[in-house]
Amino acid sequence: MTLNEMLTVLWRRKWLMAAIVVVTMVVAVLLVQRQVPTYESGAVVRTSATVAEAAGVSQLAGVPVEVSPFVLLSDGKLSQIVAEAEPQLAEVSPQEVEIVPDELYGMERLYVDATATSAEDAQALAQAYAAALVSQIDAEVARAIVELTEQRDSALAEAQDLQAEALEDPEDSIVASRLADALGRYGGARESVRALESGGSSASVQVMATPGELTGADTTTILAIALLSGLVAAIGAALLRDQFDPRLRGEAEAERLTTLPVVGDLAFDRGVRRTHDTLPVTRTQATALAESLRSARSALQVLLPSEHAAFVMTSVEPGDGKSFASANIALAWARAGRNVILVGGDLRRPSLETYFGAAAMGPGLAEIMQEGLEAGKGPTRSSVEARLKSTDFRGLRVLPSGTPPADPADLLANSSVADVVAVLRSLADVVIFDSPPSLRLVDASLIAKHTDGIAVIAWDGRTHRDHLVETVEGLSLNGLQILGVILNGAKRRHPRSYTPYYVKSSTPPSRLRGVTRRLGRSDDDTDRALDALVKDAPHDAGPRRARSHGGGTQGSPEPTSGDHEHSPRR
Q1: In what order do the strands lie in the sheet with 454-459?
Q2: Which of 8, 60, 386, 488 measures 20 to 30 Å from 24, CA to CA?
Q3: Coil, strand or helix: which one is 11?
């Protein structure tokens, strides 16, 4: 997929993408509103090497002490001290305190981190727990000094007593041994007390707690991340949706799937649907739809014989716009000075009366075929001419469908169809058959095998790809000459630089700006001029040189229950 194709897909799925982004942002806002902000503050406590060592063995100079910060925190000792020193902090909820040793200095440097719902509470908690830790360590060291002092004094008293006994009996080895032990204990306790008393502070708050900082991302960052995530998800969803979308997208895809040329892409015109204009080719104002209909006519003219041409217009499914295209292309041919007959070949659900009123009603093709079947011979020129009806447009006549028969396929399988086509060829320069859709019906094939070819109409963005392929393959298996595909409802636009070619040279610049997106003049002179250009072109030039390139969009609701052909089902 090229960048241009990707951008086209994203633009086509813009509303899906917008919905995903909006939902993502709404969810993010709701989560932000429900989220309780948390702030974190920390203090640093320094301990002496002696205390750091004692924290690991729970002994200080042989005296059992509890100076491990993890034990003090887990057994609630620090919480009790904080509650006694700072009663108001007991009401702070939720709160979380953590003591972490430094990676380099270990237990000699402790980080006291506190989390609360406000910056002030987090600071107060961190400071209170740091102070409680220092207080508890100091208390334990002081207790150890007291106990060591008692041990020293006890050992000294014992040594003095034993020394008196030794003086009385110098030869008593037991007394001498006990005296040495007492002196040893005395010396050890004295050195431990001296070391603890002269070693400085056993613990202190090295870094005071500061006002807490907001943890996690702030609201702006969260919303920015949500927006970015929503966009990424929207783009992914749009591309994924397009990959699984079975609908036909554009001229290039139609050509790739069918290996047929796209001989016309009829621009989707919202004005047609809004004004119920069934024959936009008759407009006097410039429109992309009218010009694309003329371009489709010109492309078909290149492919068809120059005189007495006959072809069939069919579609993939009902609602693709075959009758709309048939009526307007026939009228475009007539306005170019050709003698045209439009035949209501749809004997199941005729709809040409939508476009030409009474001229497309009454006895017609069905009656001609029925009479030929009963008579056992083909229709005469006079019987066909008697059924032709003139329209309000010069050069265009209509052969109505007639009364719908019980089985249209059996009626059209009659050999007299060839005779009807031959008679109609002799009566006109161009004969166009408006036939039923061909995906599940054979009516169009039965008529087309007696004509110069068949054109298949599909709706851009609505017709399923596999349905188009199945239709084309079915027509090919019947041995029909497929002229090409006509895309209805095309979305492509012309460059604005084309505007001056489709407006009168006397048009003021202010009016030029107003018709920037509308192409084509619908007066007879312009039609004939375009027709002459195409007629003079060599017939082996191929349909691509006369391809319709309409832009915009098209749609007009059908007032009947027939095809609804130029009304998008959305």
Answers
A1: 262-267, 482-490, 454-459, 309-315, 430-434, 340-344, 396-399, 389-390
A2: 8
A3: helix
- The DSSP symbol for 501 reads G
* Predicted pLDDT at 397: 95
**Tokens coding 33:** 């509103």
User: What's the distance, Cα to Cα, between the start and end of the chain in Å?
Assistant: 27
**Count of Cβ atoms closer than 10 Å to residue 558 Cβ:** 20
Q: Which of 304-308, 376-380, 450-454 has the lowest mean pLDDT?
A: 376-380
SS3 143: helix
DSSP 177: H
Q: What is the largest CA-CA distance in the chain?
A: 166
d(CA 461, CA 442): 25
Q: Give the residue among 40, 43, 42, 48 at the shortest CA–CA distance from 105.
A: 48
- Containing H/E element for 411? helix 408-412
| pLDDT for residue 505 is more than 50 | no
Determine the 3-state secondary structure of 328 from DSSP. Answer: helix
* 310-333 per-residue burial string, b: 16 or more CB within 10 A, e: under 16: bbbbbbbbbbbbbbbbbbbbbbbb
pLDDT score, position 33: 84
What pLDDT was estimated at residue 26? 92
pTM: 0.59
Please tell me the predicted confidence (pLDDT) of residue 558.
39
